[in-house]
Amino acid sequence: MSEFPPRTTIKRWLVTTNHKDVGILYLFTALFLLVAGGVLALLFRIHLWEAGGIGFLTNTQYNQAVSVHGLLMVFWFISPLGFAFANYVVPLQIGAKDLAFPRLNALSYWFYLFSGILILLSFFQGTTWANGWYMYAPLNVPIYNPGYTLTMGGNTTILALTLFVMSVTLGSVNFLTTIHCCRAEGMGLWNMPLFTWGTLLTVWMMLFAFAALLAALILMLSDRLFLTQYLSSTADGSSLLWAHIFWFFGHPEVYIVFFPALGIMFEVVQTFTGRRLVGRKWVIIAMVLVAIQSFLVWMHHMFLTTINLPIKTLFMATTIGISLPFDLMVFSMIYTMVKGRVRFTTPFLFVLGALLLFILGGITGVFLGAVVLDYELRGTYWVVAHFHYVMVSGVTALIGGLYYWWPKITGKMYDERLGKLSFAIYFVGFNLLYFPMFLAWETPRRVFHYNEGAQLYQQLATVGAFVLALSILLVFITLAQSIRSGPDAPDNPWQFARTAEWATTSPPPLENWPNRPSYASGSLEFVDDTPATDGGAVAHGRAGQAESLETEHEDHASIWPFGIGIGMFVTFLGLSGLTPFVAEFATARGAEFAGFPPPSGPNILYPVLSVVGVGILGYTLFEYGREQFHAPEMEIAERWPFEGVDTTKMGVWFFLASDVVVFGAVIGGYVFMRLSTGWGQIEPVPPSAIVGLVNTYVLLTSSFTVVLALTMAERGNKRGLLASMGATLALGLTFLAVKGYEWSQEFAHGIYWFTDLEYSMYFVTTGLHALHVILGLLIAGFMVYRVLTVDAYLEDDRPVEYFGLYWHFVDIVWVILFPLFYLM
């Protein structure tokens, strides 16, 4: 789309791909879902006014409110609010005009929005998710919780989370590529603003942690929708498998949530003390260490399981060790305040409050890192209080960031008195809500029955919840009044703000800068790359690139990300009602499941929705691929350590790194389950390795034809390119046909994915690989269509190379699966 609508039209917000617009969409969606999660919290806090509950909610309604509150706050509010600021601010801070893949950025947002709609819609499908935000096995699958786990609302919640994880993956790939490949000339990694550093480390953690969560969700969805036996086989270690995969995601998630807030804290402390952060480079090193260590502490969530004591002791040491870099960061901020001249503005007050809350949350968390104390404290209100002091301290800093960047985003100032009042009420409400939980630490979490001696603490917490809600309402009022009648904001309303976003107008123009930002001279300046009259250009000695800089103009509008989001929404909504149909199929073949058939029975509307959704998805993806959307690469940019790698290839590599973790977790789960049951107790499912060997040769040959296709594209040989891609398609279809024959032979002998654990592992793992093959064939088919219609890839062969990277990865995965499932 060439025309870009004004902000006053609805069309603008449906088609925009501009990073600032997407940041605003993230911001308001996250705040809306904060309200939704907050209302649920107020509902169950009212219920907790008396021991045993006041009858305000039924038992199941209480479980639903607690569970969905946790999911909304952990997934749909805190991280997306940080992403809102990252979308708006990071390109400005690093001197980019937009993110590397603008349409992918819009698609990430629409997946996020529609995932939020799905989880809210789940309340209207009987019963929503009610098993806690951690979704422990085996209570997360139908066999062991038929009452409300079987409802379509529970399925919809997990599908919504899956769509959210897809959104996060797209966003992570986009930000990693942008920060590594699109920094302004002269901006090395050490020189990046600390908020950008926090965002960079966040998306690195997201890339791997959310991939592990996606693998866990795939296993759970296969159990819930297709009735496989992955997580329901309690004697075979399935509950431990879920805990390992989930907490491998879950502990990095704490830092994923907190690092954007931490970056805001650093920026605000520097701005309102008028001093560069003390020990800045050491702080960056400490953040990197935490990001790495975050993947080495997950078992401290599992001290009450059967893991042996030496392993628990090792993870106790890593847990204590990860607190040490935070000590450095906290003392750095404190010393910066001591050395500087503090200005107690609204953003600074929220950041100071966040620091105080985080210190208390960190100290109380060290108790949980000790194995002996964890035996006593695990599952109590001590954990609830510690968790909220850590997580919501991040929210506190994010609200400070909202006040900090509000003048830049809106071009309006706000009433400082109202802002400071909102902080005062917020700080009192927060501590009134959560500190009494430390005093009532013996109370079991997640239940509304408690010792009557703790009733006063529960009532104080309920009052605190309403005070905290009042403070959030006052924040909204303050910002709304700012938009309606606030004075215009200058470009830099904060005297000592020094990052690049304050060097442009408030709000910034569409493409951020009138000229190209550069740090080549050691400080920020703007370079005019317009060709001079003698044919040269002022571009710090890079005149040969000036003409392309002059002629490239970026697109900012595409309707297809929105359309793809609708397609995914409809498809996933339809999938939520698939379980009864699979149950009928399974029971007709002798399988028995608790709680079947469900009271509502199959509803044909859901399969129809899935078919319609797939149709919408196919059409919109096709048009997305055909659309002429121009997002030029930065010709002059810092790309260390990835010089010489173009932007799109970098994005493909990041995506494949995430997919490595998905397959690694699924394959690791297979190995774990086989070791738990005894490796020799499970025989290979396929009766003959010959079929698998044939498929191995087929896929390896297809990798050769992809290499041949790239060679033909480099030579500009259209017929050779078509022949090579056609051969790849034929070989891929042959692989699927052989795989279909293999599966049909199993079905003919009464073996299905729901028959037993070993069959579930075989069908799910090879099925996931087959899905990747199908996606690859769809891409290859589209590429053949493009060659036939517009002679694509003959002048620019890079898309063929990118497809080859994906296809080779899929083939490598099969080379690993073949011996595991056919020979061992």
Automatic annotation (TrEMBL):
Cross-referenced SUPFAM superfamilies, in alphabetical order?
Cytochrome c oxidase subunit I-like, Cytochrome c oxidase subunit III-like
The main location is: membrane
Every copy of the Cytochrome oxidase subunit I profile domain together lies at 7-520
Q: The organism sits in which domain of life? A: Archaea
- Annotated compartments: Membrane
GO:BP terms for this protein? aerobic respiration; electron transport coupled proton transport; respiratory electron transport chain
Q: What name goes with this protein?
A: Cytochrome c oxidase subunit I+III
**From what organism does this protein derive?**
Natrinema hispanicum
Taxonomically, what lineage is the organism?
Archaea, Methanobacteriati, Methanobacteriota, Stenosarchaea group, Halobacteria
